[in-house]
Design a protein that fits this description.
Chain lengths: 152, 866
């Protein structure tokens, strides 16, 4: 039985999980600089210990309404390193680390929204709620990439 | 790769570069023993190293070269260009073998018998046969002297190798003996590779290069990154310190700050390399080019020690090489041509590098023939780079810059050095890619100078921090020309043409674009009374960027843009400011693209609006009109398309002849006519310049007022000569000038053509079909003045009617822009001449009086012949 550790976090009312190994750090995004013309998913760029981090707004990426906490500094971000670049995925609340059996991962329900199924690797049925396992690569690639792939 | 081998490759290629340079130098002054010794030593080292690493092919080649060099050194042979070429050829062969070695770690198959044979022949004095035979004793004696030193006489049988020894070669047995007596190579060979790495360093400590070590570039890069971070952290700390009144950290922080600054400088220095290292190959290139082209060219290099970032250096290498080749090929003339021009036979190409501000300037100049303006102009016309009107109106300097246009090459013949027409535009693109600029100065007969301005480094740039609303952006200083404050209380104010914003800046109209529009920011158009305009130059485009605020300039560390954001052309990167905030760096190129987009959008919108208006009114056409005052305070107008240039000429240079006023203008005499007023006697006289084929005519006006784009709706009145009619422009009634009338006054040849036709008595009949009243009104009198009987029709239907009524028309002038003249062919046997208000069609341009009258004349002649 192989198990995997996941960091859980909340976006809107949904719990998500990402493999621990994929997460670099969790930080509070401060002094974010918006990037005009970049599309709603890009929350902006920010300075994280001397590195420029591209912040992705998870709510916008998933087609959820903007957070009521208008100031991003009240929110949290998951730091991810991809292709030598730093990304921050802005989430609502960080959860805990859970260890789950790989065999228990269930496929996405067929009626799941295309945007969501695009970024979901599968679902765990926890006791009190469902945990969607997020595909970070796809999440960062942007909605445009999916459309392009679908078109091609 | 084997460490020993890679070390060998690096070292050898460095040595070879030196040999290249030294050989070229040696050729020009064969008496320089020191140079020759240096070359000899380097080639000898290469040969030796090849020997013990086990590279027989390289070794034998190097050996043959060394033998020849030995003869030079001993004075046995005179240094000839042929011999030097031969050695250079063998150096090239060695380089290609080395390249193969680097790729595959093995010597390529094949041999170099051809080269070796030549080298040996040369060493025997074979090449000298073409020259006067040298004194026999001179050749014989040194060989005899050299032979014992080299082991034995030529052609001795070597049992170990099973062949005759090459000239100057030592038998294996002797070599073995020599090796045994020396301990160096054997010990080295026996050592494992790990030790061999350390050893070259020891060697260097002993040699002249003891103070340098090789460091992996990646280490330098990461050092640079870390220092950048350190600087930013330092800045943050300093800012915090400023906020607190008194702190115990003050003194240590200031020391930290100082040391950080020094560290930054040091690390920057590690990235810097003298530009001379990019020039190493150039003497050889010039020499070879000189030989190929039978030209005598000297290369002078100044400022080789000028340092710049190695990244920039790499990027500038190829463009420079290309430019030097160009100078050899097209710049410097052959010896005969130079002598004829009274110059010394030796042409000189000069490279000069120096620092200026945060930039490095590289000048490549030659003392050749200079650029041939007429040929460039003709070529540009032929290749459709410019049109005839542009060719006329461009200054010499502008014409010269056309050599940077894509697909442009003036070389009459394609040589193997250059001339494939991909030259200067590629150079320009490459230079601009690294944020540089290129310009040129040329004087006929005196030479050409190219001036390249490039940033010292790409990692740190000087940037202007601008603000729009709450956003801040960095703008590379290199493309910023000046800052202008516009507003009510300022000298400058933003004006609008249609919805396009422009700024009057020193008698020029500068197109403006708001940064908030470029970036699609929600901006209430700021406060129009307090806008800052950043005047920028991108390539040939100059424009103003409207921003709300300009903060200051800052040295910024450019960080590449995340790929996720990379698709946006408006940004070239991001940076972290001293206060820790991340801001985007604007890409001037991308911004200028949105300018073009805006222009297109505006012109499209206005086109549509005009089309709609025209459809509603039934007729009318938008055109650019030049407004000026002449004779009275009332504005006058003439179509801008007819005007070649606007000039302000010094009235004191005007001369009076029997034909009226003339002025020397661009090497020719230009007749002047007054458009209503009088021609000034002193001060500046604004002149509208018109050109027709080879003749140029100036129309003196009082002041040039404006250029407007408007629908022209002329109410024809025949009160004054020279006036086509009056139209309402910008809310004022404006007289529209009959340019042809005034020009006829100034230059009788314009009228002469008409008069000549007049004398033919038989008045030919012309039907003019044009939907635009302006052109009808402009062309009809002009054609009539040329002696034709003109009937006008405003559309095809009317024209058909006229032709049906009366078939006796000789020529039909039909507007090809709005109608299709061919439709009339069935109705009438008259010759049809298509007209167009554009110049890029085959139709006769309406604005070209000569061409139009010629076309009518031709049509009549062919009609009569038929």
């Amino acid at each position: 039985m192989t198990t995997q550790e996941f960091v859980t976090f909340r976006i809107c009312d949904q719990m998500f999980g990402v493999s621990v190994s994929e997460i670099h750090d969790v930080f509070r995004p401060a002094a974010m600089t918006p990037v005009p013309l970049s599309g709603a998913e890009i929350a902006g760029v920010l300075n994280l210990r001397g590195r420029i981090v591209t912040a992705i707004d998870a709510r916008s990426r998933l087609g959820l309404p903007p957070s009521t906490k208008s100031k991003t500094c009240q929110r949290l971000a998951i730091g991810v390193e991809r292709y030598g670049e730093s990304f921050g995925l802005i989430i609502d609340e960080i959860g805990e680390v859970v260890r789950l059996q790989e065999s228990e991962l269930e496929q996405n329900p067929v009626n799941l929204d295309a945007t969501w199924s695009g970024v979901s690797r599968g679902v765990y049925r926890l006791e009190d709620r469902l945990l969607v396992i997020m595909d970070i690569d796809r999440m960062l690639a942007g909605a445009g990439a999916e459309d392009a792939a679908a078109a091609a | 790769m084997d460490d020993l081998l890679s070390e060998f490759l690096t070292e050898t290629s460095e040595s070879l570069d030196v040999v290249d340079v030294e050989l070229v130098h040696f050729e020009s002054c064969p008496d320089d023993k020191a140079t020759l010794n240096n070359i000899f030593r380097l080639v000898h080292t290469i040969k030796g190293t090849c020997g013990f690493i086990g590279l027989p092919r390289l070794e034998s080649l190097a050996h043959a070269g060394e033998t020849l060099l030995g003869k030079f050194r001993d004075g046995a042979l005179d240094v000839t260009p042929e011999a030097v070429t031969l050695i250079l050829a063998s150096i090239d062969r060695i380089k290609s073998i080395l390249a193969h070695l680097a790729d595959t770690q093995a010597e390529p198959t094949g041999d170099d018998r051809d080269l070796i044979a030549q080298l040996e022949a040369a060493a025997e004095g074979g090449l000298q046969s073409r020259l006067p035979p040298p004194p026999v004793a001179k050749v014989e004696a040194p060989i005899a002297a050299a032979a014992p030193e080299q082991g034995d006489d030529n052609g001795r049988w070597d049992a170990d190798q099973g062949r005759y020894l090459r000239p100057g070669e030592v038998s294996l047995a002797d070599l073995e003996a020599a090796f045994r007596s020396a301990d160096g190579p054997e010990v080295r060979e026996a050592k494992p590779a790990a030790v061999a790495i350390a050893e070259p360093d020891e060697d260097r400590k002993a040699g002249p290069g003891a103070s340098t070590i090789r460091v992996n570039v990646d280490v330098l890069e990461s050092m640079m990154t870390m220092v950048s971070e350190l600087v930013l952290t330092r800045n943050q700390l300093m800012q915090m310190l400023r906020a607190t009144a008194d702190s115990e950290f003050k003194t240590p922080l200031q020391r930290l700050s100082g040391i950080t600054g020094e560290l930054q400088d040091c690390v920057m220095k590690t990235r810097m390399q003298p530009i001379g290292s990019a020039w190493k190959k150039l003497p050889r290139i010039v020499r070879d080019a000189g030989q190929d082209l039978a030209k005598k060219i000297d290369l002078v290099m100044e400022g080789e020690a000028t340092e710049l970032d190695r990244q920039v250096l790499e990027l500038i290498k190829d463009p420079l090489t290309h430019m030097i080749r160009n100078s050899c090929d097209h710049g410097v003339e052959g010896p005969a041509a130079r002598a004829a021009a009274g110059k010394s036979e030796n042409g000189t190409i000069k490279l000069h590098a120096y620092h200026e501000g945060g930039h490095i300037i590289i000048e490549v100049s030659d003392d050749g023939a200079g650029l041939n303006t007429d040929r460039i102009r003709a070529k540009a016309l032929e290749k459709n780079v410019i049109d005839a009107a542009e060719a006329m109106s461009m200054t010499d300097a502008q014409i010269h810059r056309l050599i940077f246009a894509p697909g442009f090459s003036t070389a009459a013949k394609v040589t193997n050095i250059s001339g494939r027409g991909v030259g200067m535009d590629v150079v320009k693109t490459n230079v601009e890619l690294i944020g540089g600029t290129i310009d040129l100065k040329s004087r006929q007969g005196a030479g050409t100078t190219f001036i390249i301005k490039i940033p010292l480094t790409l990692a740190i740039i000087s940037a202007l921090i601008v603000g729009v609303g709450e956003h801040r952006f960095a703008m590379p200083q290199l493309s910023v020309l000046e800052l202008v404050r516009a507003g009510k209380r300022c000298e400058h104010k933003i004006e609008q043409i249609n919805s396009t914003r422009v700024l009057r800046l020193r008698d020029r109209l500068l197109p403006l674009v708001a940064l908030s529009d470029v970036l699609n920011l929600i901006d209430d158009r700021g406060d129009p009374d307090h806008a800052c305009i950043v005047v920028m130059q991108v390539g040939d485009t100059r424009f103003g960027l409207i921003v709300d605020e300009v903060f200051d300039t800052e040295e910024i560390v450019v960080k590449p843009l995340a790929k996720r954001l990379g698709a946006m052309c408006q940004y070239s990167g991001a940076t972290i400011l001293g206060d820790g905030a991340v801001i985007m760096i604007l890409d001037p190129n991308g911004v200028s693209k949105s300018l073009a987009g805006a222009e297109r959008a505006i012109s499209r919108a206005s086109d549509e609006a005009a089309a709609a208006a025209a459809a509603a009114k039934g007729e009318g056409d938008r055109m650019s009109l030049l407004l000026f005052a002449a004779g009275s305070t009332e504005p006058r107008a003439c179509p801008l398309s007819l005007v070649t240039r606007l000039e302000e000429l010094d009235a004191s240079t005007f001369e009076m002849t029997s034909r009226g006023h003339v002025v020397q203008y661009r090497g020719r005499l230009m007749p002047l006519a007054a458009a209503g007023g009088s021609i000034r006697r002193e001060g500046k006289q604004p002149v509208l310049v018109f050109s027709q084929g080879d003749s140029v005519i100036g129309l003196a006006v009082d002041t040039i007022l404006d250029i407007v784009e408007d629908r022209l709706d002329i109410q024809l009145n025949d009160t004054a000569p020279g006036i086509l009619g009056t139209a309402v422009l910008k809310g004022r009634s404006t007289e529209v000038m009959d340019v042809g009338y005034y020009l006829g006054q100034a230059d009788p040849s314009w009228a002469a053509a008409a008069a000549q036709l007049e004398t033919r008595r038989v008045r030919k009949r012309v039907l003019l079909v044009d939907a635009h009243p302006f052109f009808r009104n402009m062309l009809a009198p002009m054609v009539a003045a040329a002696g034709y009987d003109v009937t006008v029709a405003s559309d095809l239907q009317e024209a058909r009617g006229r032709l049906a009524q009366d078939a006796a028309f000789d020529v039909v002038l039909a507007d090809a822009d709005a109608t299709s003249p061919d439709a009339l062919a069935e109705v009438s046997s008259a010759r049809i001449v298509p007209l167009s208000s554009r110049r890029d069609t085959e139709a006769v341009p309406k604005s070209d009086r000569h061409a139009l009258l010629d076309a009518i004349e031709r049509a009549i002649r062919t009609g009569e012949a038929a």
